[in-house]
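Troubleshooting: if your tokenizer reports a length mismatch, compare your output against this known-good record of 293 residues.
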Amino acid sequence: MHNSFILSNFASMKSSKNQTVIISAVCAIACAALIVFVHLRQGNIVYAATQPIEISQQATTPADYEIPLCTAGQQEQRIAHIGYQVSYNSDWHLPNWVAYQLTAEEVAGEEARSNKFLPDPLVDGDPVLTSDYTHSGFDRGHMAPAADMKWSPQAMRESFYMTNICPQNHSNNAGDWKDLEELVRDLATTYGNIYLACGPVVSDTSNTIGTIRRIVVPESFYKVLLRQKADGSWTSIGFVMPNAAGNRPLMTYMLPVDSVENLVGIDFFPLLPDSIENAVESDYTISDWVVSR
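Known-good structure output:
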């Protein structure tokens, strides 16, 4: 690879005084726990506490700018795992979106790939199984890629939950989509922190796989990126890529984030002030997305 390239190439009591202090501390802890519980249950979000969270391995990042909002009445159950959040659509048996922040520190993680696909234990109802994809002709395609979750054993394991998976054309999964995933990691390494969301594009005529759970086959996939520049301003870019074989420059798939929103009925980066969101999502600037290798 060239040293630099553009997209085209790529969280003992001893006195009554002591007793009072301890009781106060216990009350404070209980209140804090209640606040956390209420916070995590708001909006039908369930926090994935299947195992203790590896707090020491989580990168500290700003507000959750990456979390989108469905605006087209999509069925959804929001689930928060340690490395990503997912809006799961039980009608499609697919995510509406998967969103997370990716930092340079996380990219540098060294956790080995899991390769063990699992049903998501937090799904309401009947979860998708890895066997639903057997002999389908499609890959189990990650939305939040395993290579973005190398900073934590738990994050790696949860990236193989089937709520993070879509039926994906093998050539696309191993080709242009993989190139886009690698680009995002390069961007996180170059700029320190990237906010992103990705997911499937489906229609009423989309095909399905499976005989027990009819899993919708996406016609395309989208990915939207946001970052804050050194001067404090914001910049964004979107991609839409057909779920088909192909080998084209990534520039071919570029779109303003507004265009992706209109396509999938999702409001991306809604925590940005409206004046900023409207400006940065209406267009993209290629030079804001240059990376070095």
